UniProtKB/TrEMBL annotation:
It comes from Mycolicibacterium psychrotolerans. This is ATPase. InterPro entries: Bact_Sigma-Reg (IPR052016), GAF (IPR003018), GAF-like_dom_sf (IPR029016), HATPase_C_sf (IPR036890), HATPase_dom (IPR003594), PPM-type-like_dom_sf (IPR036457), PPM-type_phosphatase-like_dom (IPR001932). Keywords: Hydrolase. The keyword rRNA-binding does not apply. It holds the Pfam family GAF_2. It comes from the Bacteria. Residues 31-168, 193-338 form the GAF domain. Residues 493-707 form the PPM-type phosphatase domain.
Length: 834
């Protein structure tokens, strides 16, 4: 092989390697501007040109953008204007005289020109121009072929870069749409989103100016709107354009609003001072449409020498406009149904259930789930809770695939709808206890549109904020209720007592009325019902102090008259307490004796088991704080087993147009009629039956006392009677509310006592009898077993098998007492009720 041929082959190899290297280099970056610059540099390297330019064509075929190297843009424009490219141009070895004198520009001689078109996806993207000013310079066929090969590779690199640019641009517009959604949740929805829409549109479109026009008459139907007004602006001449008015008819913006179709234009039919009079430039005009209604128009204009908007960009901006329109529609409707549901909810659970129902209705969904994933405060083993519109549902009821999908949404971005599964959309949001995932299954697997996603994002944000607000209010309410209940009186009343309170000033649950039930720990229980003057928080504050004082006085001296007498002095000195009325009563649970005294208060009512009644008007004198040192009387009465005692305030019985006696008589009749009802049911009947039309307008207290009747049973001293006695005692213990574990202890201890009475007490007199008596006080059960036999003296030598009955009784009971004599033996068993 000759040396020249070898040199040619080596040169060809080097050229091929260089071509491969530069082709790889131009596609290594997805930024379009970087890619275009690399294409020019690569072409200059392959052709050994002194300068180069890449001209980019617009849709109309005009070259508007140039990427230059070694030559300025103006010179490149003038040169290119003289060189129609067609399939390509290669000129070389030209002298100044051979060239058109117009190619001699600014002292720059052009001796050689190479121009190659660039086609991207079959469309004319532009052309690659290479220049050289050296005398006798020519571009070779090999160089032309290399540049053409580069142009082919450049088309693919440009296409990839444009796709990447479009995706990146779409991501920016999507992010901007979310920012508008976030702004919608601000405190000023009427202005915040408007300004944000135009500001973001200006920035993202790299535009010179953006304006947003809305109907001047927003309350009129769309076809009756006559004028648009510029409500928000950004960019150049912002202050001059704001507030300008444009007629709907005869204007470009009005036409877009009427037709509901976007438009790319270089001119506007109706002048808008500060916007249409700044020179020819490309502009895009988009309607803002939500639910078929045009809410406004946004116009974005670029600078005069910027590239024109194209249809691809129109699609991007149109998506943004749809988001913006939905934001405006929702901003204009602050009383959205979801907001109303959240506002009416008392607890987070109630709010969540209402939200699930509303979301199902809004999307006509087949099913909606709301799954709460607790944070680390609940522990690693916390199971997610599920709320379903179709009924109760647990986390374990869901399939493992669905559990994974819900967990995946939880771990994703908050307020970012997930629509990867046909007919399903999900979104995660902040919950007071962790993260909440809402899962919506659409009917018929219809697609979840852009408008659906925007609406879901907005509603999820509102739901999250609403749940946080309900949680805070709920916590505040719980704290307030705890304080109010502490003022009001105890919730856990002794057996045989039940109370109901209703304040006249919602949302407060306390007022001037109060009740208290005090276990004096000696077998007696004190009851107080009172009424301070006034309503609301002021009266409640006074009431709390009077109630506490009365309780303390009863512990010091358990006498109704003494307590009220000393309260006189307290009420006279406490602002707002004067003229307080109260009734105080002390019940001896063992005997049923009731001692009571009244300070200007409505009389207690006592209804007996046969339906007869007694109005307890004894021990009655003037209200508290009017006259200190005043002697207060007491009255006594026995409350028999099965009777019901009622203490109350005047709000229960006092009615406009009727006397107080009429109201009391009505209460007596109702209490007698329903006397056999359980206490909790009886309270409900009395409160609802005595309520006036429209509800109570005054504070109301109702306190009922119905001591459980004792158990009395007498039976022959025979072992066969043990089972019946045990059954009767078990039933009675359940009726008075003793717990199951204590029932077992009492049955065992009582069984030992009864067995001893039968076996030992009547060992010589089997015809004798045994008496079983059981009674309950505030916190104790008292059982007495009595026989008429003879006490058996225990043996001095303990029996290894028998004789453990008394020891077992003492082990199970809090107190055991044995009394024996000539008439028989009595065993007293006492157990504190837990």
């Amino acid at each position: 092989m000759s040396a020249s041929r070898e040199a040619e082959l080596l040169a060809a190899r080097d050229d091929a390697a260089r071509l491969v290297r530069v082709i790889v280099g131009i596609g290594s970056d997805l930024d379009l501007s970087v890619t275009l610059r690399r294409i020019v540099s690569a072409a200059m390297e392959l052709s050994a040109a002194r300068s180069g330019a890449l001209g980019v064509k617009e849709a109309d075929g005009a070259l508007t953008t140039f990427v230059c190297q070694g030559i300025d843009e103006d010179t490149a424009r003038q040169l290119v204007a003289l060189l129609p490219v067609g399939e390509g141009v290669r000129l070389g070895g030209l002298s100044v005289q051979q060239l058109d004198t117009r190619l001699w520009l600014d002292g720059l001689p052009v001796r050689a020109v190479l121009a190659v078109p660039i086609m991207v996806r079959g469309n004319d993207f532009g052309a690659l121009y290479l220049f050289d000013d050296r005398p006798d310079r020519t571009f070779s066929v090999v160089q032309e072929d290399a540049v053409r090969a580069l142009a082919t590779a450049a088309a693919a690199a440009i296409d990839n870069a444009r796709l990447f640019e479009r995706e990146r641009e779409a991501a920016k517009w999507t992010k901007a749409s979310r920012e508008i959604t976030t702004a919608l949740l601000s405190s000023d929805p009427q202005t915040g989103p408007l300004q944000l829409i135009v500001s973001l549109a200006l920035e993202l479109a790299d535009a010179e100016q953006a304006i947003l026009l809305v109907p001047k008459e927003p309350d009129l139907p769309a076809d009756q709107v006559a004028t648009l007004v510029v409500a928000a602006t950004a960019g150049r001449y912002a202050s001059e354009v704001i507030g300008r008015q444009v007629p709907m008819d005869g204007s470009t913006t009005g036409g877009v609003a009427r037709r509901g179709l976007p438009l790319i234009t270089d001119s506007f039919q109706y002048p808008i001072e500060g916007f249409t009079d700044v020179g020819d430039r490309s502009a895009i005009v988009m309607p803002l449409i939500a639910d078929g209604t045009v809410l406004g128009v946004i116009a974005v204009a670029r600078r005069p020498h910027q590239p024109r908007f194209d249809n691809d960009y129109l699609e991007l901006v149109s998506d943004f406009a749809r988001h913006a329109a939905i934001a405006l529609a929702l901003a204009a409707s602050r009383e959205h149904a979801l907001n109303r549901e959240l506002a009416q909810a008392d607890t987070v659970d109630d709010a969540l259930k209402a939200a699930v129902d509303e979301l199902r209705r809004l999307w006509r969904a087949r099913r909606v789930l709301a799954v709460t994933f607790a944070d680390q405060r609940a522990g690693a083993d916390a199971v997610p809770t599920v709320v379903c519109d179709a009924g109760p549902l647990r986390w374990d009821d869901l399939t493992s695939d669905m559990q994974r999908e819900l967990s995946s949404v939880r771990d994703g971005d908050l307020l970012a709808p997930v629509t990867t599964k046909p007919g399903v959309a999900a979104v995660a949001m902040q919950h007071p206890d962790g993260v909440l995932v809402v899962w919506i299954e659409l009917a018929g697997q219809r697609p979840f549109t852009l408008e659906d996603q925007t609406l879901l994002t907005v509603l999820a944000g509102r739901l999250s904020q609403g749940l946080q607000h309900v949680h805070q209010v709920d916590q505040q309410r719980e704290t307030a209720l705890a304080l109010q209940h502490a003022i009001l009186g105890p919730d856990d009343l002794p057996r045989g007592f039940f109370a109901r309170y209703q304040a006249a000033s919602p949302p407060l649950q306390v007022g001037g009325d109060w009740y208290d039930v005090v276990d004096l720990e000696d077998g007696r229980i004190a009851m107080i019902v009172g009424d301070c003057v006034g309503h609301g928080l002021t009266a409640a504050t006074v009431m709390g102090q009077v109630r506490s004082a009365c309780r303390a006085l009863l512990f010091d001296n358990p006498s109704p008259a003494a307590a009220l007498s000393r309260l006189d002095r307290f009420a006279a000195r406490l602002p707002g307490a004067q003229c307080t009325t109260a009734v105080c009563a002390i019940l001896e649970t063992g005997t049923g004796e009731l001692v009571y005294s009244s300070a200007g208060h409505p009389p207690p009512i006592l209804v007996f088991s046969d339906g007869t009644a007694d109005i307890l008007e004894g021990g009655h004198t003037i209200a508290l704080g009017i006259r200190t040192g005043h002697h207060r009387p007491e009255s006594r009465i026995t409350v028999p087993a099965g009777a019901t005692l009622m203490l109350y305030t005047d709000g229960l019985v006092e009615r406009r147009g009727n006397t107080l006696d009429d109201g009391i008589s009505r209460a007596v009749g109702m209490l007698a009629e329903h006397r056999d009802s359980a206490l909790e049911d009886l309270v409900d009947v009395m409160m609802s039956g005595l309520a006036p039309e429209g509800g109570y307008h005054d504070d109301v207290v109702l306190l009922l006392c119905k001591p459980p009747a004792p158990l009395e049973r007498t039976f022959p001293a025979h072992p066969a009677q043990l089972a019946g006695a045990r059954t009767a005692l078990r039933d009675w213990l359940r009726q008075v509310g003793v717990g199951q574990n204590q029932i077992v202890d009492l049955l065992v201890a009582t069984g030992e006592a009864v067995a001893n009475a039968i076996e030992h007490g009547h060992r010589d007199r089997p015809e004798g009898g045994v008496q079983l008596h059981a009674a309950v006080s505030a916190d104790r059960v008292h059982v007495t077993v009595t026989d008429s036999g003879v006490w058996k003296v225990p043996s001095s030598v303990p029996d290894p098998v028998r004789g453990r009955g008394v020891a077992l009784m003492r082990l199970l009971m809090d107190d055991v007492t044995l009394d024996h004599g000539a008439s028989g033996t009595t065993v007293h068993l006492t157990a504190r009720i837990l």
